[in-house]
User: What shape does this take?
Amino acid sequence: MALRTDAFDLGGLRLTSGEGRRLELEVVLDPFELGGEAYRAEPPQVGAALDVSKMTGDGHALRLRFEAALVGPCMRCLAPAQPVFAVDAREVSQPGGGDELESPYVQQGLLDLRAWARDALALALPTQILCRAECAGLCAICGADLNQAGPEHAHERSPDPRWAKLSELEFDAEQK
Assistant: This one.
């Protein structure tokens, strides 16, 4: 069984430059709020593979991989959704190498694995969480679930208000 960790001491691996190690860990994924709706990982603790490579100096190259199912309402039809997302994230932490080489998740050799996993999952999410890729959503007129209503669901169109005055015209059968 993999070890659960929220923070990981990179210095404790005692790696030399060019050396690397793969670790199998358990990480907790915190809930999200997207579009005013709550989403949570199921299960909240997932197995993750962490690859750590020592660079010259005090630097590390990091790779985090895991799969997580996100549970919450579909953003089109509001039915329960549970899509699965694969996450493959990379970070470089080279202290003193400038902003682009310093990871916000590594502070004094301690990796905040929980925050990195949550942010990596957030970046892997599509713009809409759907119950299925072909979700038809809700009818804009009556609110019916179009996934269940079928192709025969339709509404009579109201006349275009720009042509409303034409309906007031009266035509005489006799013309003088």
Summary: The radius of gyration is 27 Å.
